[in-house]
Task: inverse folding
């Protein structure tokens, strides 16, 4: 016990000595701090793109909603379901009812070109045709400006994300797609989900405008409970009249985010990894010079009976402390600059634009700080060992 | 030249420090090379676009199909010399992760419009004659180890067959090479007729037309003329140069260029700081020696040059190694498994890298070099 306390006292003594001399090495210490701050900024910023994109697609959908598409389709864009099949689907078991009618919404999804404000070039924006029942399934959907479209009229409402990212989607403006002119009558939010990147219109009007006959893209069904999904799925897939793919809405949208999140994750880790290696080298240099500047002091301490362990530990502690300071600066910088930064990108799987905001989550910040500590640890390790190994006699002779 | 040994021994003075500075510069240039390749991969479509090619799509969206009958009407537009068409197949080969472009085209005309796709004459003939035949680019063939004659099954996601099945099978009749290193050799092309005969819906339509024009200078006028032909029809068109089309496509993803430039900015700033700091340190430590040199009669300019040369040598060594390593890594191919098909270092990354090396060397060396030059001998010697 006595030895342990003694050991800690030694660590403390050397540590304090290091910290006291820090002002003499302000330049090189600052270089380490800024270096690590740069690494952590980039790390957190790049991965906040992934967090934001994933959050948007994960917030879309509830586990008690099922989406029915044609068998073999990966996205609603590619799926075709006849209204006849849609009626069969509506009669399936496990669908919730309201006022005697099933809560099942046939929907049609097409893409329209709308100029993206940030780049000025056309982007693929999803245009969804819905019936009033669609609003019963999306319980978080609210009109925040203007009003809802009137069925039968050439009116559209735009998601808040779409209105922010794409040109000409304010209430009162008119859009021409094909031979139809559409008037924007409202803006809606949907709890941050991917619907906010979409434009909505009346299903029948949209089908007419696209000469789609009696074909829609998909059917969204509200189930009586999330546990009823399997019953619903097996009822539809075993129905000989249908060739459909049934997915939970949450699973469907989670699948949609795979391509982008894996791309951003790969590139993010790669870039941050390489930068981290660079920062470790920088930290090693700083700590070597820090140790070199104190060769005499350390040797004196060793001569007085201080052990090698406390010396090693105190050097590593200093390195970690510097790196952590950098990490906190970098994390804060990333948070201030990028949290809630709105943008949109093309979801490669559905070929359509998704508006989302970067998200610097607490977990991401914790990862950034951990990364900083690791950089500090590796940066301090070699110089620390060297400091402890230098023979006392040789170091003192340098005087 | 005679000062080289002096610079060299200065660098070797603190070997460990020199090595780590070198390594951090190396990392910076490794990242530079890598990010330039990433950016290039996103924007490659724009650079390789043919100046004499236009692309016509539906005005509302590229996913809306155009009637095949537009072929002849486009061909009659003054200024147009050739027309080909394509339909996006969007199928899955074995696993959704194995993404690559599959397009149904009219083979003869399509290859005429893309002369940069080099394919042996006999393979070309075999493909033209084989209704269910397909060709693919060299990169794709290598990626999946396909050989000529292989049967390649692809699951349709957009186009089920008339009999309700969604599995399509193709015979690989040929493999094309790119005329340039940057030619897209990741495409999979097959007969539009095969698709059209067997698909269950939207027969007689295509997704886009590729048009060759007589004179690139006239591109805007020809594009307007084409769109005028189909104005007020059920399918109005939007014609743009292939470059603008690709640009629009790349920009759908977002401003990749700006993001990567920003990251590189941070990287270089960080490295500048780390390397610059080390340089200054090593000059500070050598103040006595520099004073001795001055006492021996070395002029101020020479002292300045010696210190600058030291930082330049460090930057050049680290930079060259970093760029070389980047080149080695990049030539091993796309790190994202098919998302960035053309992953190469563009030619300009060499000269630009060299420029950055010089700038980095000057930036890190200037301050310590000036310090060294302005040294007052008496004071410096007294300090030692």
Result:
């Amino acid at each position: 016990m006595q030895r342990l306390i003694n050991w800690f006292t030694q660590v403390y003594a050397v540590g304090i000595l290091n910290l006291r001399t820090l002002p003499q090495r302000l330049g090189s210490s600052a270089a380490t701090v800024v270096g690590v701050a740069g690494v952590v900024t980039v790390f957190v910023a790049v991965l906040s793109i992934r967090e934001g994109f994933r959050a948007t697609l994960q917030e879309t959908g509830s586990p008690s909603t099922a989406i029915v598409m044609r068998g073999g389709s990966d996205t609603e864009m590619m799926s075709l379901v006849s209204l006849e099949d849609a009626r069969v689907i509506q009669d399936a078991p496990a669908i919730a009812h309201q006022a005697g009618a099933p809560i099942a919404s046939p929907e049609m999804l097409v893409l329209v070109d709308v100029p993206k404000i940030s780049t000025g070039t056309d982007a693929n924006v999803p245009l969804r045709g819905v019936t009033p029942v669609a609003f019963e399934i999306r319980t978080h959907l609210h009109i925040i400006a203007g009003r809802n479209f009137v069925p039968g009229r050439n009116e559209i409402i735009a998601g808040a994300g779409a209105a922010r990212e794409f040109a000409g989607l304010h209430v009162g403006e008119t859009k021409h797609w094909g031979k139809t002119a559409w008037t924007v009558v409202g803006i809606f939010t949907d709890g941050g989900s991917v619907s906010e990147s979409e434009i909505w219109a009346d299903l029948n009007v949209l089908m007419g405008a696209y000469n789609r006959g009696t074909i829609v893209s998909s059917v969204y069904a509200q189930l009586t409970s999330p546990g009823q999904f399997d019953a619903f799925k097996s009822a539809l897939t075993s129905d000989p009249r249908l060739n459909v793919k049934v997915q939970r809405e949450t699973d469907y949208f989670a699948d949609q985010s795979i391509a982008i999140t894996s791309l951003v994750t790969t590139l993010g880790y790669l870039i941050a990894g390489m930068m981290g290696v660079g920062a470790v080298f920088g930290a090693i240099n700083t700590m070597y010079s820090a140790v070199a500047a104190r060769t005499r002091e350390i040797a004196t301490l060793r001569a007085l009976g201080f052990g090698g362990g406390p010396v090693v530990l105190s050097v590593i502690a200093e390195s970690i402390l510097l790196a952590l300071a950098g990490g906190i600066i970098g994390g804060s910088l990333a948070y201030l600059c990028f949290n809630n930064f709105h943008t949109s990108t093309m979801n490669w799987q559905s070929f359509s634009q998704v508006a989302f905001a970067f998200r610097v989550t607490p977990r991401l910040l914790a990862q950034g700080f951990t990364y900083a500590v690791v950089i500090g640890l590796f940066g301090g390790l070699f110089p620390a060992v060297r400091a402890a190994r230098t023979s006392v006699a040789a170091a003192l002779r340098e005087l | 030249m005679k000062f080289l040994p002096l610079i060299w021994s200065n660098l070797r003075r603190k070997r460990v420090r020199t090595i780590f500075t070198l390594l951090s510069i190396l990392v910076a240039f490794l990242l530079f090379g890598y990010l330039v390749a990433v950016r290039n991969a996103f924007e490659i479509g724009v650079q390789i676009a043919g100046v004499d090619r236009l692309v016509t799509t539906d005005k509302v969206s590229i996913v809306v199909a155009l009637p095949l009958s537009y072929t002849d009407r486009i061909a009659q537009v003054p200024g147009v010399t050739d027309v080909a068409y394509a339909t996006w197949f969007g199928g899955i080969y074995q696993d959704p992760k194995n993404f690559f472009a599959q397009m149904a085209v009219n083979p003869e005309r399509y290859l005429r419009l893309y002369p940069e796709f080099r394919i042996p004459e006999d393979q070309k003939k075999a493909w033209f004659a084989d209704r269910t035949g397909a060709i693919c680019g060299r990169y794709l063939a290598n990626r999946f180890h396909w050989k000529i004659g292989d049967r390649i099954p692809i699951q349709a996601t957009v186009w089920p067959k008339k009999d309700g099945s969604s599995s399509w099978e193709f015979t690989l009749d040929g493999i094309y090479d790119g005329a340039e290193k940057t030619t897209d050799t990741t495409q999979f092309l097959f007969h539009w007729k095969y698709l059209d005969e067997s698909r269950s819906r939207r027969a007689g339509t295509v997704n886009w037309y590729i048009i060759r024009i007589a004179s690139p200078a006239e591109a805007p006028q020809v594009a307007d003329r084409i769109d005028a032909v189909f104005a007020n029809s059920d399918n109005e068109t939007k014609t743009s140069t292939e470059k603008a089309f690709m640009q629009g496509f790349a920009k759908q993803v977002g401003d990749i260029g700006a993001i990567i430039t920003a990251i590189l900015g941070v990287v270089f700033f960080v490295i500048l700081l780390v390397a610059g700091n080390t340089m200054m340190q090593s000059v500070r430590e050598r103040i006595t020696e520099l004073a001795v040199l001055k006492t021996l009669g070395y002029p101020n300019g020479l002292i300045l040059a010696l210190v600058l040369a030291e930082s330049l040598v460090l930057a050049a060594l680290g930079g060259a190694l970093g760029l070389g390593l980047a080149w080695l890594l990049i030539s091993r191919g796309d790190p994202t498994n098919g998302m960035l098909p053309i992953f190469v270092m563009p030619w300009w990354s060499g000269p630009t890298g060299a420029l950055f090396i010089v700038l980095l060397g000057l930036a890190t060396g200037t301050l310590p070099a000036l310090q060294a030059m302005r040294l007052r001998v008496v004071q410096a010697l007294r300090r030692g």
User: Anything to note?
Assistant: The mean pLDDT of chain A is 88.
